[in-house]
Amino acid sequence: MSKKPSKGGAPALDMTPMVDLAFLLVTFFMLTASFRMAEPVVVDPPSSIGQVDLPDNHIMVTIDKDGRAFFGISNSTAKMNALRQMAAKYKVPFTEQQIVKFSGLPSFGVDIKDLPAYIDAKEEARQNFKGQKGVPLDTITPNNQLKDWISIGGTEAVKMYEEAKLKAADAGGEFKAEKPRYAIKCAATTKYIFVKDVIKTFTDLKLYQFNLITSLEGGGTVIDPTK
Amino acid sequence: MAEIQEGGGGGKKGGKKRAKKQSTRIDMTPMVDLAFLLLTFFVLTATFSKPKSMELTFPAPPDPNQKVEEVKKGITFLLSKDDRIFYYEGQFRAADDEKGTKTTLTELSFSQDKNGLHKFLLDKNKEMQDQVRALDIKHKNKQLADTTFKRMVREVKANKESYTYLIKTDDKATYKNVIDVIDELNVNVVGKYVMVDILKPEMDLVTEKVGTN
Predict the structure, then answer these.
(1) In a shared domain, residues B83 and B157
(2) Spans in chain A with pLDDT lower than 50
């Protein structure tokens, strides 16, 4: 009997490194986390080898598989200003609280007449909002709200960008932000004819460059000579 | 999990000589529990990658007064329902005329087999791909700077002799098909492709192939 059995009680284990690591990771994830509200629709984009990151500053039109269009602007100030102008144009009154609340929402897909009710709705109710038929984008009748949203939202986003640029130039700091870009996110199963309508809306406004959002395909090789 | 401290650290065995030493050890178990709980939460809710995108430029609508030039080396892809894809080369001809015969559609597929779109583009675009591949090898061996490499690839892609690809869809094609075609064109270093509206006679030809419903 070289060793006597240890006394009762748990064996001591130095947990300091593990705890250190745990807190390090917690800190990392907390700092990198960005919270956002749930999008009104889940859209599953097709995969491609496109490697370009979606720019932070963007104006996005989402098209779900039924062809409904949803509109969103990443810059919240531009979003508020766009709503004010749209409210004036379509003569729909919004309270200041509604406008502020709107700036925090993700993309929306309702007629501007239903927008006040949509903003006031609770988050859970918003998902099943009955007027959520997509932003109207009839390319024939004059009721193409999507066109106005894109046009006004685009102008506002560019204005915000220019202002930020001037401010940075005054402060003498380096200016990093990028110009707003137009993004189209679309479900893989959407009929192309719906996408065509949205693209027609863009090209009518003389906007020809888009970022089409796709999910990443495994192994992005440029050329595969073996096949 | 953690060691549970039973009683103080000091002042065991009677505490004879030294002054009674207060323990500095505290039970860290709840804190560690909390830390891991938070860790798990943030790991699970983290979104790692930003969505990727592909940049695409659409053509401006043509000036109606401008005379449309005939595309000399053009290939038109026609997309339809059930992931079916057809192509024809050159100008569309509704009937035989002095310049060529009536346009007929050939079917391709999205798979990797011998009838696939990938193989088709590989054959059509062999020369340019070889050039780009040669450049790519040079670039990898550090014989070419990044910017030079990009510029030279662009020059290869802009080759005047290469085919121009037109992508047209009927009402039933899906967005995925369109992205797949563009993707395949990108993979095969095609520099000139464009999305255009389908013409009525082309639509008729496609309908003939796939049926009306």
Answers:
(1) no
(2) 1, 219-227
